Hints:
The chain has 18 helices and 16 strands. It has 466 residues and is of the alpha/beta class. Strand 2 (62-63) and strand 3 (66-67) form a beta hairpin. It is globular. Residues 168-193 have low confidence and may be disordered.
Amino acid sequence: MTGPADVLPSLYRVTLAATVAIAAAxxxxxxxxxxxSGDDCPPVSVDTRHAAAAFRxxxxxxxxxxxxxxxxxxxxxxxxxxxxRWLHVHCNLPHHRVGVLELLGARAEPAAVAQAVARHxxxxxxxxxxxxxxxxxxxxxxxxxxxxxxxxxxAGLPLIEIERLxxxxxxxxxxxxxxxxxxxxxxxxxQALSTQxxxxxxxxxxxxxxxxxxxxxxxxxxxxxxxxxxxGADVLRVGAAHLPDSRTLLIDTxxxxxxxxxxxxxxxxxxxxxELVAAADVVIQAYRPKALDRLGFGPEDLARIRPGIVCATxxxxxxxxxxxxxxxxxGLVQTASGAAVEAxxxxxxxxxxxxxxxxxxxxxxxxxxxxxxxxLARREGVGGSWHVRLSLAQTGRWLMGLGQRDTLAVPGxxxxxxxxxxxxxxxxxxELSYIAAPGAVGGATRGYDRPPSSLGxxxxxWAPIR
Length: 466
C-alpha cells in the first residue's frame, strides 16, 4: 500500500477501508491466477489516493468535460421529526419517490416533505414507510443500532460468507485459500470447467474467459461486476426496460460491460436467461432478497441449471433478522447503523452527517469481487457450485469495527491528487473522464475493454472468447 494514511475526511477509517477492500479484490484475482496457472500468488499493490478516488468515482466522473449529474434526487435527505429525531428518506428511484409523496400527502418539494415529516414521530413513520416498501430509516446512534434486533442479527454474521451450494464446505477467506497453493489437487470435475479454460489468462487478466451475469443496480453490485470486467471477465449486465436506473451510476459502473434487457415474467425471456446461465460462470444479484428466488433463479436454482456456478448475493441488511427483506441503500444503512449520528456529534452538526463517499456500497462491491474470485479459485481446485453473500450492513459493521480516527480536518482529494488516476474513453455518451480501475496484480495494471453503453444496447448473448 502506498500513499498517505488518510485521504478522505471522516470520523471513521474510510481511507483504510477503501484501500483494504480494493486490495482484497486484487488479492482474489491473484488467487485465481495462481489456481489457473499453478504459479505462486503474485503480490498486489494499491495507492490510498487511487482507492479514495475510486470510492468517489461517480462524483469525479466527467461527461464531455462536465461533471456528471448528481444521481441523488432533491427530495432524498434528512428530515426532522416531531419527537426531535431525524429520518433519512431515499427517493432516488421514481417509484420510491412517488410512494413517499403519496404516503406523506406532500408536494414534490423539500420544504413540503419537511413539513409532512415533522408531523410524525420518527420510529412510527419509519415503520409505516418500510411496510409500504419505501426506503426510509430513523437516524440511530451506534449503541441503538446494536441493541436493535436488526443490528443484533448483523452482528452475528461475518463480513463475507462463501459457502458451497452442493455440499457443506465453507470457505473463510484468504487464509483458507493458502493451503491450495503448492499442493497437487485432484482433477476438477468436468462440470467445474468453463469457458475460462479456453481463454489466455495473465496476471493482469486472471479472469479472462469468465462469463458474468450482472443482475444488479445502484452501486455495490455494479461495482462488483465492473471489478470483474477489469480483470478480464466478459460481463453482461441484465436489466429490464420497466426498471429505472441512474444515468450517472449506469455510466460510472458500466465500464467493461455490455447491457441487455430481459423481463423474467415473460416466458421467452426467462428461457433465454436460463440459456445464458447454463453457459455462465458467475451470477451477481442485488435485487430485493428472494425476488429472483420466486422467479426460479435463486442460488440453488442456478446451481441446478449450471453446476459449477458461483452466485453472489448482495443485500442491504443481511440474510438474518427482521430487516433482512428490506430494500436499502448506502445512505440508509449509514443512518440506521449510527455512522451518520456519530459523525454529527464529532462535527457539532445539528443533523446527521454522511460519510465522504458511498463507502459501504463501494467497499461491498469490491469485497464481493474478492468473494467471487476466491470461490472461482476454489472451484478450479475442487469443483462445486458456490454462494457468496454480503450486505451493506455487514460492511458497515466492519468499517465501524476498524475504530474511529478523526480525520475531519483532512482536506480531501484535490484535482492534483486525482489527475494521475484519470483516464479518458470515447462513448455513446461523449468523451468520458473517469477513475481508472484501482489496484494492480503482479505489477500489471487493470483496464476496461469497452466503454459504458445504454441499458439494453446489446443482444442477450455472450461475446466470443478471446
